[in-house]
Amino acid sequence: MPTALVTGASGGLGRRIVGRLRANGWRVRALVHHAAVPDADEAVQGSLLEPDACAEAVEGCDAVLHAAATTHARSERRYRAVNVEGTRALVEATRAAGIDRFVLLSTRTASPASGWYGESKLAAERIVSASGLRWTILRLAEVYGAGQGEGVDDVIARARAGRLIVLPGNGESELCPLHVDDAALACANTLDADSAVGRTFVVGGDCLTLRELAERCIARSNSQSRTIKVPWAVLVGVSVAARVLPLPMYPDQVKRLRAAKPTARAAVLAELSVTPRLLDDWLRATGPARIGS
Q1: Which of 7, 30, 76, 108 is least surrounded by CB atoms within 10 angstroms?
Q2: How confident is the model over 250-275, as pLDDT tens digits?
Q3: In angstroms, rounded to a whole number, what is the distance separating the alpha carbons of residues 174 and 177?
Q4: DSSP code of 259?
Q5: 41 in a domain, yes or no?
Q6: Distances (CA, A) of 191 to 41, 64, 117, 188, 283
Q7: Does 38 fall in a domain?
Q8: 245: in domain
Q9: Cα 91-95-98 angle, rounded to 5 deg
Q10: Whole-model pTM?
Q11: Contact 185/20 with Cβ under 8 angstroms?
Q12: Per the domain annotation, does 167 fall within a domain?
């Protein structure tokens, strides 16, 4: 039975990736920084910022699935330390251990125009694609269903609770929501897909605007929730203040929302043997009280 190292295995998506990999016949080793990963077959304590921990984590593995990342920070330094230098350390450890299969979970926002986070993930992609490994990059769209309390899950929760939903600008930002279980299956299946080697995939569901998402969630919840538009100029000012104040947004979020992003294509999920559930079907099935199933 082959062994895969999974980083970021304690997160809402990472835990599901562990389960899918095991169902696909892999043993799973988790690089554990804070929270434990009960479903992993084994664990190595440490972080991407510790070269010795990276070396120990990859020893004896057959593949690496790198899902760990800093997604929200108030400084560019933090993004670069984890997402760029952490990826570089893991790639170097992977090559030194003689492992040739490496899957990087990236983001649809990987772009020089997407602010610190998007820039850091694009830099990580470049490290991986230049590594000489048998790599695959999965640019994930907006994942929902993990009960993370942000992004699409936050819109769903607000609609179901009858709370106000804030729309940056006119709510024109495009989203391609993908259920967390479908995202996990796509990630796990990639390790077994020889046709995926050397390729970058944009993985997501049917696309719609944030305004359309909010309206759909309100309608499916039959709630009194309403939306409010906030001008981009106001949000830019708040994002600047967020560099020094603990505001409920991060300095790079405006750029992340406004940057052009590649559109997810259904054919990608089909190639990875995933039949995604439709957002409307999931909203009807889970009902107003459950967002994490």
Answers
A1: 76
A2: 999 999 999 999 999 889 999 999 99
A3: 10
A4: S
A5: yes
A6: 18, 9, 25, 6, 30
A7: yes
A8: no
A9: 145
A10: 0.95
A11: yes
A12: no
